[in-house]
Design a protein that fits this description.
The protein is an all-alpha fold. It has helices spanning 6-31, 34-51, 57-76, 80-109, 112-122, 126-144, 147-163, 170-188, 196-202, 210-235, 252-276, 280-300, 304-321, 326-345, 348-355, 362-376, 383-395, 404-419, 426-435, 439-445, 448-465. It is built from 21 helices and no strands. Helix 2 crosses helix 4 (80-109). The chain crosses the membrane at residues 58-76, 83-104, 131-153, 180-201, 213-230, 279-298, 365-394, 406-431, 443-465.
Length: 467
């Protein structure tokens, strides 16, 4: 293909608009400049235009719904400018954040340590594989975010094919491994420092204690691990594996290097946030491109050959690879806009009074939030859109009906439930695209019982920790 072919030129146009959006949103947040925000919104609009040929029905549906909600806000609210401005800011933030994480993911996929860890997770005997994939997926998602799915699904399917078994049970092996991976990723969002749900909600709900949220999130994550392991063991209790899988030993050096990379990312984020007097969210956004360059230099070395290799890889990522993230960036931007603008249409205080949420026991409200959020996700509303809607709704209340930190945790738990329950969840659609497994089978076919049990577990958990 010619370097000047229409496709190549279009890719460069997409790359240019995405890079401009990232730079302008970061600058606008750094300098709190209205003029820069206006330019950033223009870059988002240019991105929508350039990525239009690659968008699918879902993206066009979300964009059309965004226009409808914007029209309703404009026609019915006196504070229309404030609501729509906040919604545009949210859209730009989510678009840029997923793009910045995509930059980091591209550095991670070429890391030998990451490759060793992925092979280790998928080459475990049946008795240990669920816990390994659930936990390993979650911790790798700190760096990869949703990209961990793109990395692990092919490893799982290649490993099953390579085993070359003749017992006709490869479909069961695929179901068990991919379900464990999906569950681990889904429940990582309730504690991961880089998950989109907490980062979005922290800016929407005042009074959230992030460290306490992470602590309780890790407790729930461990409880769901035990629950999922028990459910899987019971479901496949009659299954007897055949053939000898040669498990790989834990690669301690690779694990240590990956942990060090996570530590550098989080430490750098905290330092930038402290120096600038900004939130950790902003620190994380600035840290991603710095980590990208640093990780590539660490992989390629600092000599002349290494510098050339790093420069070539950066050009490949920024010009050739980033455009592939355009559709998911549009999905998240539209979801962010809908969630924030939709909450502006709903009278929060009146809704709380009408539903008597202010008189409901705290634990009951907290247990109901994840269930309601996951049920809405069946209407093709993405989990992140509903999380932002709920976050904006509760954040705008005159008085919180429960502890703000626990409300934020409950909303992120609803996001987790949605990812094993809704065939419209982004991660489920991505797995479908990579593996060929239908979204309905991944969720309502394979994981509906697990999701219902998890919702029941949350009710017990919130009842147990109530003041």
């Amino acid at each position: 293909m010619s370097a000047r072919s229409p496709r190549d030129l279009w890719n460069k146009a997409i790359a240019a608009t995405l890079l401009a959006t990232m730079a302008l949103v970061l600058a606008a947040r750094l300098f709190a400049s209205d003029a820069l925000w206006h330019l950033a919104w223009g870059a988002v609009a240019a991105t929508l235009f350039c990525t239009a040929p690659r968008l699918r029905l879902r993206e066009f549906y979300l964009l059309a719904l965004s226009l409808v909600i914007a029209a309703v806000v404009w026609a019915t609210r006196e504070d229309r400018v404030e609501i729509l401005t906040a919604a545009l800011d949210q859209a730009g933030f989510l678009m840029v954040f997923i793009l910045l994480l995509a930059l980091l993911r591209e550095a991670a996929v070429t890391s030998p340590s990451v490759g060793e860890l992925g092979a280790f997770l998928t080459r475990q005997p049946a008795g240990r594989r669920y816990a390994a994939l659930y936990s390993g997926t979650a911790f790798m998602a700190v760096i990869f975010n949703i990209g961990v799915v793109s990395f692990l699904v092919p490893l799982i399917q290649r490993g099953i094919a390579r085993a070359n078994t003749t017992d006709g049970r490869d479909a069961i092996r695929e179901r068990r491994q991919i379900s464990a991976m999906l569950r681990g990723f889904a429940w990582s969002v309730i504690w991961s420092p880089t998950a989109l749900a907490p980062l979005a909600l922290m800016e929407l709900i005042p009074g959230v204690d992030r460290l306490r949220w992470i602590g309780w999130g890790l407790v729930v994550f461990a409880l769901v691990l035990a629950l999922g392991w028990a459910e899987e063991r019971w479901r496949f209790r009659a299954y007897r594996p055949t053939g000898a899988i040669r498990p790989l030993p834990m690669p301690p050096a690779a694990a240590a290097r990956f942990a060090a990379s996570c530590g550098w990312l989080l430490g750098l984020s905290w330092i930038i946030a402290e120096l600038r007097g900004e939130s950790v969210v902003f620190g994380l956004m600035v840290s991603c491109p710095i980590m990208l360059v640093g990780w590539l230099v660490a992989q390629n070395g600092i000599g002349p050959t290494g510098r050339r290799a790093t420069a070539a890889r950066l050009r490949e990522i920024l010009i050739d690879t980033i455009p592939a993230s355009g559709p998911i960036a549009v999905t998240l931007a539209a979801s962010g806009f809908l969630g924030r603008a939709g909450a502006g249409v709903v009278p929060g205080d009146a809704l709380v009074a009408a539903l008597h949420l202010d008189t409901m026991p705290d634990w009951m409200l907290l247990a109901a939030i994840p269930v309601v959020l996951s049920l809405f996700s069946l209407l093709a509303f993405s989990p992140i859109m509903m999380a932002i809607f709920f976050g904006s709704l509760f954040g705008g209340l005159t008085e919180m009906p429960a502890d703000p930190t626990l409300i934020a945790l409950a909303i992120s738990c609803g996001w987790a439930l949605s990812m094993t329950f809704s065939p419209f969840a982004t991660v489920v659609l991505l797995i479908q695209r990579i593996s060929g497994i239908p979204a309905l089978r991944l969720t309502l076919g394979w994981n509906v019982a697990f999701t219902v049990l998890s919702a029941a577990l949350l009710a017990v958990f919130f009842a147990a920790i109530r003041p």
